[in-house]
Amino acid sequence: MNDLIAILGVVVLFLPIVALLGRGATKTERLALWLSALSHLLAALAMVFLTNEVLGGGDMNGYHKFGSAVAGLLRQDFRSAFPHLVNLLTLSDEPSPFHGAIAGSTTGAMQGFASLLMLALNDSLWAAAVLIGGGACVSKWLIYRVCSEELPAQRGLPLLIPTLFIPSLVFWSSGMLKEPLALVGFGWLLFGAYRLAVQRRWWGLPLAALGALLVLALKPYWLPPFAVAAALWQGSRLLARSKRDVLGSAGALVLTAGFAVALVFGTGLLFPEYELDSLEEQILAQQAIGTRVTGGSGYVISGVSLATAPLSLLTALYRPALFDVNNAMMGVNALETTAFALASLWVLLRRGPLGALRATLASPPRVFAFVFTITYGVAVGLATTNYGTLSRYRLPLVPFFALFLASLARGQQHSPQRAPQRALRLAPRL
Question: The whole model's pTM is what?
Answer without folding.
Answer: 0.86
